[in-house]
Specification:
Order of helices and strands: HHHHHHHHHHHH
Radius of gyration: 22 Å
Low-confidence stretches: none
Strand content: under 5%
Structural class: mainly alpha
Number of helices: 12
Distance between the termini: 73 Å
Number of strands: 0
Number of domains: 2
């Protein structure tokens, strides 16, 4: 890089982040504020006239440091916004790492960032369901479970879980999703879970008849 490029404040901030993470590689100690700081950096990179050079630097860093939080997150967000599938993979790997480290506020934040651009993204919806349950409880799960059940029809557990969450307030709708779950369990020959559905369906039907 030229001297002018190195002296650019956005370039300087990026390299500061990259150097800082060399000293602290344990992702389980990362705080949400760190991710929010990277969000600010992303906005600066997006509007920088050196954006291409900065992205190249991140890509080169990722080759040498495949686990780099900074490179994966910043590249992931920028590439995802630009429709590049590589961005999804970077963000997916981060969601998995933070999930394994039980950093649920960060999982929640990354999921929100993805859903803001693609509200039907399965990876983000799955992460959002889990983070919401961990952080805010089952009562707030319904909208995310409903969306996930609609886009992830091959996952019967999600359909069943959503049906059970609404069985008292909307038994007719619950029955639709229980049938969806049953069909999916039958396809994969999961007879144990399939056999458990009639009792749940019976409960739903009894509520409908009242």
């Amino acid at each position: 890089m030229s001297t002018d490029t190195i002296q650019d404040p956005v370039v300087s901030r990026l390299y500061s982040h990259l150097n800082e993470e060399k000293l602290a590689r344990d992702i389980s100690s990362v705080q949400l504020q760190k991710i929010k700081t990277l969000d600010e950096l992303i906005q600066e990179i997006q509007s920088s006239d050196k954006k291409s050079e900065l992205i190249h630097s991140l890509e080169e860093n990722l080759k040498d440091n495949p686990d780099s939080l900074v490179s994966r997150y910043v590249l992931g967000r920028i590439q995802f916004a630009g429709g590049d599938d590589a961005g999804v993979e970077h963000l997916r790997s981060l969601l998995e790492d933070f999930r394994n480290s039980a950093r649920w506020p960060i999982v929640d934040h990354i999921a929100d960032a993805i859903l803001a651009a693609d509200d039907s993204n399965r990876i983000a919806l799955r992460a959002k369901v889990e983070s919401t349950e961990r952080l805010r409880g089952k009562k707030e799960l319904k909208p995310y479970l409903e969306k996930l059940a609609a886009v992830d029809k091959k996952n019967p557990d999600v359909a069943r879980k959503y049906a059970q969450s609404i069985i008292e307030e909307d038994p007719a709708k619950a029955l639709v999703f229980l049938k969806q779950a049953g069909e999916a369990y039958a396809r994969v020959k999961d007879y144990k879970n399939l056999e458990a559905l009639p009792l749940i369906m019976q409960t739903s039907l009894s509520i409908i008849k009242k």
